[in-house]
C-alpha cells in the first residue's frame, strides 16, 4: 500500500512539473489553474482520506479528542496549502488584481509555524529521541 502511494505521489508531481515547464517556457498558454490541477487532485485525495479518519475517530471516541487526532492537523495543513496555491494562481493569472507577494504568501506564513512546531514536537517526543539521548549519557 505504501509503495502505491509513493508511486502515485511521484506521478502526480511529475505531471505537475511537466505542465509547469510547458507553461513557463511559453509553449502553452494554459490557465494557471489548469497547471495546478494535478496538485489539487492529490490534495482532494489526501483530504478525503484524512476526513474519513477524523470521522471514524469521532465515531469511536469522544468529540473532545478530535484535536488530539493527527488527521485533524493534516486537514488544516491541506486546506492552507490549497488556499496558498489558489492565491498563487490568482497572482499569476490575473495581473489586474495587483496582489502583493506578501499577501499571496499569507497561507504559507500561517502554515510554516504549524509545520515547524509539529516536526519539533514529534522529533523531541519520539521514542528514537529518548533512545538517542540515553546513548549519549
Automatic annotation (TrEMBL):
InterPro entries: TM_Fragile-X-F-assoc. The chain crosses the membrane at residues 7-26, 32-52, 73-94, 106-125. The keyword 4Fe-4S does not apply. Keywords: Membrane, Transmembrane, Transmembrane helix. This is Transmembrane protein 60. It comes from Oryctes borbonicus.
